Amino acid sequence: MFSFVLTATLARRCGATILLRIDDMDQQRVRPEYVQDIFDTLHFLEIPWEEGPRTPEELKREWSQLHREALYQQALEALKAGDKLFACDCSRSGLQHSGGAYDGHCLHRQLLWDGPDVCWRLNTTTPLMLDMRAANGVLPVTLPAEQRYFVVRKKDGHAAYQLASVIDDDYFGIDLVVRGEDLWDSTLAQLYLAQLAGMDRFCDTTFYHHTLLMEAPEKKLSKSDGATAVRYLRKEGKAKADVFAAIAGMLGIREQAPDWETLGALLLDHYPVFRQRVQTQH
């Protein structure tokens, strides 16, 4: 909810509209009670959004990523035709055994695209200088080593997160993205993919990376923990102001925040929403 409060605040200040987009491509991990809780929490906290589903049923019927599967596959085929992909059959356990980072082992193996247990990876050997549009200007960035050869189609044939996210943002005309600083590298991967695919509109998106809520000095507050806390407060009869006070307290803000508008203004006044990071070139 921290990120959504920031999004709503920035959207109102910029005169933008908010799209509620729920990633549900991985149906095996989608739990109806968690989807329902997203809507319950937003209504409980009275945080508005202008576009997107209003109920879980509407999400499934009109807004699910499954309805855009053809767009994902079209993008994958275009990348494949442009020799920008390669097939890979490396296992997760094998990657963990070798240190976790993928080194392009299958880049020149010429595996069958539709072979058993094969995913598709992006060929990232081409160095690209990326321009990230942030609140404090355009930042020159490059793809980090940890994101090399990232997966764009999973072994089950469905689009992977990075590709689906880029296609969705382009499809809906998103030009402002607010996300946690832990997704910085993910943003760079998406910018690399968009530039390689010639998706200029996505490359012009402005990204705001905010600090994470921490429940301990070295432990961030997970989405599930945060959602559980809001559900618990609701069931205990607490008011929305209690949730906003908890968020403010985690960030060291002492002023009262009875609603999301007040909390959003306090966040912008007291805490750096935008992180300027210039990568050191080696």
From TrEMBL:
Signal peptide residue numbers: none
Name of the molecule in the record: tRNA glutamyl-Q synthetase
Any one of the GO BP annotations: glutamyl-tRNA aminoacylation
Alphabetical list of SUPFAM superfamilies matching this protein: Nucleotidylyl transferase
GO molecular function: ATP binding; glutamate-tRNA ligase activity
Gene Ontology CC terms: cytosol
Domain (Glutamyl/glutaminyl-tRNA synthetase class Ib catalytic): residue spans on this chain: 9-95, 149-247
